Structure formats: C-alpha cells, structure tokens
Amino acid sequence: MEHAVVENDPRIWSNTKKTAILFIISGASMFAGLAGNIQNPANAQIQQQLHASSGDISLSLSLFILVQGMFPVIWSAISEIKGRKLVYLLSIALFIIGSAIVAVSRTIGLVIGMRIVQAAGSSAVFAIGAATLADIYESHQRGTMMGVYYSAPLLGPSLGPIFGGALTQGFSWRAVFWFLVIWGGIIFLAFLFLFKDTFRKERSVTYQNVLNSRLREQQLSEAKDESRHISKSEVGGENQTTSKDIEAQRTVIPAPAIKDVKLSMADVNPFPAYFSIVSRKNNFAVLIASGLTFAFGFSIPYTCARTLSMYYDYDALKTGLVLLSYGVGCVAGSILGGRWSDRTLARLKAANGGVSFPEMRLESTKIAMLWLPPSVIGYAWVCQERVNIAAVCVMLFLAGFLSIWIYTSTLAYIVDANTGRSSMAVAANSSFRGLFAFVAAEIAVPLQDAIGDGGLYTLWACLMVVIECIILLVLYKGRDWREASVEREKQKLDAQ
User: Fold this and answer.
1) Short-list 451, 460, 364, 450, CA closest to 413
2) How large is the average pLDDT for residues 223-230?
C-alpha cells in the first residue's frame, strides 16, 4: 500500500512544489506552536483587566495544551476520508474565529472557552502535517523533512514570549490575539490558493477499510435481493438455486464501480483506528517515550520563565531572549537529528542488503542518549544555584538540542511503522503528548516550589533514562512486536 500506483503521484512532484508544501505547513505549525506560549507575557494584564484569578489563567493554558493534543484524532480521521486540504481550511478558520473572539472578550470565561476553540483549530496541522510529508516523501527522506517541519513549532516556546511581550508592552494583551488572527489569515489564504491536496485514498488504510466494509454490505444486500428474486421466479427442478450457490456466484465489483461508492462523514469513526495503533506494543512504547519527551520540552520554558522572573528579576522581553537559546537548540536538534536519522537508516539499509525496516531509524538516537540526562542535571543545578545567566543559556541549548534530536527520530518512526495510516499515528502521538504536557503543566509549579529547580529537573533526568530504555527496547524488540500485530490484524480481517 505504501507504494500503490496512484494518479498524479505526489511523490514524483517537483522539488519546488514539495518545498512550497513544506513551507506552508511549517508556517501553519509555527503559529500552532506560538499560540500556546504567546499569552504568557500578557497574563498579568489579562488577570487585572478581566478580574481573573491565577487559577483561571493557569486553566486557560493547561486546557489549551490538553485540547491541542487530543483533538487531532478527530481531524486525522476526517482527513483520511475527505483529504488534507479541507481539514486544513476548516481547522485554520476555527483558529481564526477563536482568536478574534478572545481578542474582544470581556470575561475570563469567554477567554478560556475560546482558547479551547483556538486549540482545536490549531491542532490539525500537528497530525496531518506529518501525514502530508508522508504523502509526498519516500521513507528514506522523511527524517530530514520531519526535522525541518518540526523545527517551526519548536520556535514557539522561545519566540512566543518575545512576540507576546513586545505586543503587550507596545499595545495591549488584545494585540497578541489580533496578531494570531492576521497570521492565521495569511496561512488560510496560502492553503486555499497554493496548496494542492496530497491525500491519495489508495494509500490510506483507513479509507480502504471503510470502503471495503461498505462494499461488503452492498454485495451482501445485492446477494439477498437476488436470492429472493430467484426463489420467486424459479421453483423446483433443475433450475433451483440454493443460497450457497448464490454465495459462490457473488459478483466482484469492478474497479470503476468503486468510484460510485461515496463515503460520508458518518463513516468516520476515529476510535477503532486510534485503538488499533495504540494496541500495538511497539507503538504504545514509543508513544509513551515521545509523550514524556514532549512534556519535558513544555515544562522547561514554563518553569524557566518563573525562575528568571523571581530570581534574576527579568522582564518578559529579557525572559524571551533567554528562552531563545532553548528554541535555537530545539531547531538545531530537529534539523540535524532528522538528517542523522535518514543517514543512519540509509547506512543500515545498505548493510542489510538493501532491505530496511522502521526500527533501524531509532539507532540514530543512541548518540544523544549519552548526553541528555547529564545535560538535564546540569540545567537543574545551574538554575538552583542561580549562577551566571550564560550558563543557563548553554544548558537550555543543550537540553533542547538533545531532547528534540531523540523526539524527531521517534516521530519519524511512528510514521514509518504505521504505513497507510500515518495521520492517525501522529494524532495518537499528539494525544499522548497533550496528556503528558497537561500533567506536566499542572504539577511543575508545585514541584518547583517544593523541591526547587534542582530537585525537579533531577527527577526529569531520571525520567530521561527511563525514556531511553523504552526506546532501546523498541529498537531491539519492536520489529517482532510490530510484525506479530500485523499478522493478528490480518487474521482478524480475514475472519470477518
């Protein structure tokens, strides 16, 4: 199915066209990443003007990241039936509406509600952005392109406070959300006029499963009608036909007739596909590792901003500039880690007689595994001891660089290991990371206050070791798990 022949194959499009698509979805993913962090510098002003509590502000942030993580499951299912472009346009329109209403809100309740709408709208690109890249690039190219694509939203934690601080200080907190409206409008127009749909139903497991189910129902209905007709018109003698004969004579629907079967939104049920992905041992293990890695990446700028404000007396703009070192590290780790991932896959494929399998890609994470836990511990104690800000910047860079190096390879693996349902696989990844990030956001401040940055990020360093062990387990056992799951699913499908 991965290499099924399709009309106007996106994988043979020109490099210019592919680069344009990569640029558009990267721009969309950047505002999706910004939206979660750009509010932070404006929180004090929002709290004062809307008479909100600190709990209200915290709820608006944590619910945003939770919904942004969970909602891609819905968008992914729709995109596997209706295509990518429609989902991009609907979701971005929803994001624009949510942003505009937040900008004119007079109550904190409305702000929280519309931030949830924003999150739902901004979430689609996280799921089907990676699926779009899987549509247009072969597996040996995806690591590099995933790295480029994922570097865009990684700038959010660092650029968000800078943009948010500048707009809030120069105008008001409302300008932050009008900025998102304008950016969303530009991306909407880019998708409307410049983006050509990359979805091909022949390569979608979800579409084929729904289509086959509909065709079986149609064939069964036709067979029953034929049985009733024969029983009435031909009674007894040599011409009598049994139901068993009819079953054997069931007509095979020709290929052109498949086009007559129209799938509707009623056919979209994301949960069977979602649970099918999560039920595979290799997927579940990598999703846990990926979710925890993302939660770490969400926690560190959040708590670092508090540390810089409370102990270094930095304002929003200075805080944003310090966090830029983390963002730069993430971008560098994403791009270089993606390239190294592709290079590792190519090397191991050549050594294996030209045959590759998805788990080979995880070999590229080993080089970062050696240095990530020590870097996190280093960050923990330079913050705890309030050393010179230059040391904080260096450790932020290393923590971002090494964690995203690993994350990029796990994301590429999730796509490669779920051929034909890449968008749902990435949506599952989004749900795990949203859930873990929500928990991380809720417990970060209480833990930071109780045990300090030193204790909090020493715990995170220990979790990094656990994450690395999980990835190594998938590297060495994942192929057997995956092939066993595929065989079970095949047997179950044949039995139906």
Assistant:
1) 364
2) 64
CA 477: distance to chain centroid?
24
What span, in angstroms and rounded, lies between the C-alpha atoms of 373 and 370?
7
- Indicate the angle between helix axes 124-136 and 389-416, nearest 10 degrees: 60
Report angle CA 237, 242, 245 to the nearest 5 degrees: 115
CA angle, residues 166, 169, 170, in degrees to nearest 5: 80
Alpha-carbon distance of 168 to 182, in angstroms, equals 16
Q: Which two tokens stand for residue 332?
A: 């560098």
Give me the helix-helix angle, 54-70 and 422-495, nearest 10°: 50
- What is the C-alpha separation between 229 and 218, in angstroms, rounded? 17
Is residue 92 a contact partner of residue 29, using CB atoms and an 8 Å limit?
A: no
Identify the DSSP state of 381.
Answer: H
- Structure pTM? 0.76
* Burial readout 350-361 (b: 16 or more C-beta within 10 A, e: otherwise): eeeeeebbbbbb
Give the largest Cα separation in the chain, rounded: 99
Q: In whole angstroms, what is the distance from residue 13 CA to residue 280 CA?
A: 33
CB atoms within 10 A of CB 265: 9
Q: State pLDDT tens for residues 257-279.
A: 445 556 665 666 777 778 888 99
355: left (phi over 0), alpha (psi -120 to 50) or beta: beta
Q: How confident is the model at residue 21 (pLDDT cuts 50, 70, 90)?
A: confident
